[in-house]
Amino acid sequence: MASIKLFLKSSVGRKFLVGITGLGLSGFVLTHMAGNMLMFVGPEAYNTYGHKLITNPFIYIAEVGLLAIFFVHMGLALCLALENKKARALAPSQKPSNCEKDARLGSRYMVHTGILVFVFVVLHLITFKYGPYYPVSYHGVEMRDLHRLIVENFKSPLYSGWYLFSMVILFSHLVHGFSASFQSLGFFSVRNCLIKKMGWAFAFIIAGGFFIQPIYGYFYGGN
Amino acid sequence: MKLHLKIWRQNGPSAPGNFKDYEMDHVSADMSFLEMLDVLNVTLVKKGETPIEFDHDCREGICGSCALMINGNAHGPDTGTATCQLHMRRFKENDTIVIEPWRAKAFPVIKDLATDRTAFDRIMAAGGYISVNTGNAPEANSNLVGKDTSERAMDAAACIGCGACVAACKNSSAMLFVSAKVSHLAQLPQGAPERAKRVRGMVTQMDQEGFGNCSNTGACEAACPKEIKLENITRLNREMVRAAFTE
Ligand code: SF4
Ligand code: FES
Q1: B137 and B195 assigned to the same domain
Q2: B83 CA → ligand 2 middle, Å
Q3: Which residues in chain A are closer than 8 Å to B19, comparing Cβ atoms?
Q4: Which residues are CB-contacts of B119 (< 8 A; sequence separation ≥ 6)?
Q5: Are residues B157 and B63 part of one domain?
Q6: Which of B171, B183, B203, B211 to probe by mutation at the A interface, max A CB count within 10 Å?
Q7: Enclosing domain of residue B127
Q8: Residue finishing a domain among B78, B110, B142
Q9: Do B168 and A10 touch (CB under 8 A)?
Q10: Closest Cα to atom 5, ligand 1: which residue?
Q11: N or C: which end of chain A has fewer CB within 10 A?
């Protein structure tokens, strides 16, 4: 037990937690993106899927778990980043070393992209989860018309633009985050060809999936 | 060759420090970088000024003393070499060269370009050794180690403890160094008995010294004069997980 505690308090252990929660969140965005694809099938399929999700009694446990993962990921990452800033100690007249430029691009901005993703998530929840309630009923069951809400929002170029921008940010966060998680967990190095490609592929799938949804909503929604 | 040097001068650990300009004429392309600094120091002494303090020892890339940030590159522009292996032929007439000490809270400046890197020694003392009896030469033949294992351990053992990885890292993380030392011993049978204790001790000490946390950027690998691979950090992480479940 003492050695587990020591591990979790150490830099390596906290990185491990950031990595494993990061992978958990990656799994969440993947299912979220895949679920959203139902909007292409039609309003009924999409709304029924949403209805089934929120009426499932386990949803509260899942939500609490997700929230916990989210805050552990963010809290630890910020705490590590603050320590890193303190450890650097550059004199005011100094520029960062050139080698920092050898660092992978996304890796240098993980805190920035992470904070933007957080802002996006909060606004996203306000817009959708806590947004207006439009009722609709299929086969006698009343449910929320989320499809209408989504299309309404995507019809605004401002909202769609912000959404697309956020997905580019998420893409950059995932390209590094996905492969780096495997390094923090001690599986593969970020230099590993396969894991690098997987990071890119995963980020492409997620951002790509979330990308076509507002574009579709903007051009074809409501027709 | 004529050169313009901008060198960090700092009187002591708590003195403010700033860049000072030095002009040099007739620098031979055959000189090593450290010889160029030696020549500059001789002229400074002749003029009655204080020479520039910088660390060096072996001058053949094996001791890890020569820690200089040259134009923003740890150990200068070449890959896989230490500062002492850098030659002036790498520079051109009228070049400006900016020379700074390593920068990290855990490596305080002693004077000018010399930094206190005893934090690395304390990390080593916290577990970077083996205390079992490894026997004599015949034991080497009876204690078989696979070729690829021994190669990986040897590659990690090439680390000279210079601290360039810390200097290059935006987080001033010492993980490449610690991972090289841990990887070196953890893979060999002689290092096995103290495997968990070693990694726990070294990582704890590393954290206490005030080094930053690795964010898997890979800048250290690019700066390392011994080309220590990032895979070692993955192994260090793995060793720590393993140690968490070992008493
Ligand atoms: S890992 Fe490389 S850069 Fe870091 S101390 Fe060892 S030799 Fe120097
Ligand atoms: S002086 Fe020994 S490695 Fe450069």
Answers
A1: yes
A2: 7
A3: 93
A4: B106, B107, B174, B209, B210, B211
A5: no
A6: B171
A7: 118-246
A8: B110
A9: no
A10: B161
A11: C
Residue-level length of chain B? 247
d(CA A140, CA B97) in angstroms, rounded, equals: 78
Look up the ipTM and state it. 0.87
Residues B148-200 have pLDDT tens digits of 999 999 999 999 999 999 999 989 999 999 999 999 999 999 999 999 999 99
Regarding whether B231 and B172 lie in a shared domain, the answer is: yes
Given an 8 Å threshold on Cβ–Cβ distance, is B240 in contact with A10? yes
pLDDT along chain A (223 residues), means of 10: 90 96 96 91 91 91 95 95 86 59 72 94 91 88 89 88 94 92 89 87 93 84 55
Task: Tell me how many domains chain B contains.
Answer: 2
> Which residue, B64, B92, B110, sits at the end of a domain?
B110
Contacts of B204 in chain A (CB under 8 A): 6, 10
Contact B74 A99 (CB under 8 A): yes
Please state, in angstroms and rounded to a whole number, the distance separating the CA atoms of residues B32 and A83: 38
Residue whose Cα lies nearest atom 6 of ligand 1: it is: B159
Are residues B125 and B242 located together in one domain of the fold?
yes
DSSP secondary structure, B116-146, as one string: --HHHHHHHHTT-S--S----HHHHHHS---
Domains of chain A listed by start with CATH number: 12-84+97-219 (1.20.1300.10)
Joined tokens for residue A193: 């060809």
Same domain, B131 and B168: yes
pLDDT digits (tens, 9 = 90+) for B4-54: 999 999 999 888 888 999 999 999 999 999 999 999 999 999 999 999 999
pTM, entire model: 0.91
